[in-house]
């Protein structure tokens, strides 16, 4: 073992006790001191230090020893007593008094085992983060390449624009010169023609004047002259005089428009080509359940999940561990249509076929917080700012629309930030043309704290669409699926929609075993057929604190193995 002196040279480290021996072989993990062989014995013989943990530096277990945590100095949350245990049901530290008061029948675990599991989980997270960092570093390189290619392509376009400008200028100059030469030639030819016709007019005028002169000299009283003058006049050939001796022709310049469209036709234009995005999905974890159908799924930071199911005419909402010790912690006999987490991590549930929305606390106590009679509650979503978005409809056929139908999204705001007092003064039902926005608003998510509201609108039992509104309720866009995967037998229906940490919209398309990824403008970024990687019938979606997408699936009728829950990482 060596260290640097002030000059940068390497010197051997000495024992922290004797400060002489450089043969360092041990480390006291409690004192954080390095020891030689002799001082190790001295250290252990001191009564007050005899229980200290001394590690052999050559041991392969050093890394594990380095993470060893003292358990005797961790107090419980309420009584501040030591020598605690961990209540897995409530996810809190408990002392003996806590256990006797309110945790008698709960699942308890030693702190050593709990810490070991949490350290193991943190090590997994560390490995994942390191992997993500590596991916990001690669992405930086890809960004640099893409940036260079983008800049080069635009520079190339600029160069072509300059070349086209010069080409068009030269062509316009040549064409203008040609038109000017044509004008000069037409002017010369026209003048020559007019001079010739002018000469002809002068000749005709001379003949006519001669005739007039003869006729003017005739004496009307002399009868003999009449016959003589008639013969003289008739001997002159009478010229043909027309009123249109000069042809009335004219030339007009038909000027072309110099609009942007006309210029674009000659000049050319830029087209932004669609980038062939792909969605890479890496499965991090796969958990098999005893359910045939995962209706809803939300995951907390502590790697526990609330899962709602409905099968064999029995509904439940279950709190489950998503660790290696996979299983149900708590079960509530509720039929959830939709679920969400509130700002303070309470579970919010819209109860199927009722007007009621309930809140379930961390210790699994639940209470009704809204009754929206006479409407039936459908979608429930809590935005990051704490606002509630609730889809409702009147009772009756969910897909039959009549004049008295009411299908809308209500927005409830919390006055205290804890959802103990909710008020609503905003609702969305019609667009600006007084057309209905929804058939049955069954799923909702938001972007930018409600600046964009995306509603999963179920049109029939097998078909649906996305409807996006701005905060004013104006229709921004609709999305009816990807024509490359939709068909008459497998229509697009958004069984669940969530917003990613990056601001994308992810849609579960169970009918087509697909995930759709859209941006805030409603443009399809990517569509992934997840059955290619073994994920079938994706139905429930949520993102966890670490950015992993959790997917709850259904099963085929003949499949008795149970539905799977997956944790995946999305990459674009």
UniProtKB/TrEMBL annotation:
EC category name? transferase
| Pfam families noted in UniProt | zf-B_box
The Gene Ontology terms for molecular function here are: ubiquitin protein ligase activity; zinc ion binding
Top-level taxon: Eukaryota
Q: Which residues form a coiled coil?
A: 108-174
Q: Which UniProt keywords apply?
A: Acyltransferase, Coiled coil, Metal-binding, Transferase, Zinc, Zinc-finger
Q: Which PROSITE patterns match?
A: ZF_BBOX
B box-type domain segment(s): 10-57, 71-111
Per the UniProt entry, the Enzyme Commission number(s) are: 2.3.2.27
Name of this protein: Tripartite motif-containing protein 71
